[in-house]
Fold:
Amino acid sequence: MIQCKQLEESYIDYVCDLLNDEQVARVDQHLRRCSTCNRKIQSLQKTLRLTEEAQKMPMPPLVLDNIERNVYKRLATKSPSPKPAQHFSKYLTALRLFSMKRRPVWLFRSAIATLVLVITVSVVTIVVNQDQSPDNPISAISIQSPHERIKLYQQAEIQNNYTEALETRHLKGDDRLATLQLLVLREQTP
Amino acid sequence: MDRTVEDEILVAQFQAGHLDVFDDLMKRYKGQIYSYLLRSVKNYEDAEELTIEVFFKAYRALDTWKPQARFSTWLYKIAHNLSIDFHRAKSRRHTYSLDNEEFVLDEPKAVDLWSNPEWEAEEKDRHRIIRDAIDQLSPKQKAVFMLNRYQGLQIKEITEILGMAEGTVKVHLHRAIKKLQTLLLPLWEKNDI
Structure:
């Protein structure tokens, strides 16, 4: 009886395989003689068997593939920009000061035109590189390395931003906002 | 080769600049992490979102990882912390909506864990009883129980994940099993297991 009380503390460890060989041997030896403790052990084992029944979880198909793809998408959208963000604020301040001073309009417009030309050349280079990629973008992504995948998603993001900037300029007629968007785009372009 | 050693080699390669090996690490553990989070949050979409977050954080922090603990233990720690944050945010939404009638409680999502139509009705009922019993454990008891019994982690690993002493982990495990024994007694007496 005394031994039952002493060993009872270790029965949960016994059924959970947390005892060392010596301790297991001691419990086994006691269980050979004590039916009461045997019933306690069986009760614990039944409880654990029941919980194991509910262990199996139905998993939606393709969920694990989705996880992998979305990890790289998230890394692409939240990757730090190549240049520090504070450079943009300097451009913005310079642009504001420039536009506030009385200068010929033609000078302002030619500066913007030059900027747009530089950005257009950069973006065309990106588009040409994208055209050289395999026809099926999904299979391309699946066979490329993680680094290449992140780059691909970054380039798609840049292209989207460029399109938005052009729409701002031509559809909304907002030259100033379009210029700011293109400045941001220039910073993002590697 | 021991899996732990393999993980350390892959991490070392990653830190040396071979970023491709992150694929191998993710393939190894995404299933385990997803199943752990699924049991924790009981919703497919939330579990998927949290799993993505786990590996996103792991990728960002892997450069500074040191082999003081197993790589898998480190991943589980991130997952556990995210699940705690998730439950806190969820309980704050519920609490706020009780105080302010303008806000509506989050509706249960259509893909709840127990709405899988493929299950037999009886099996669903039985499993629901078992899962209800597990849900009645305290958060720490439940975490220790799931990590040990469902994820197969050793006590030492669980101490690192949960930030508890070994004795504390064992106490929680003991209490969890004793409580489950009481709650599930009618079930296994009814069906001779």
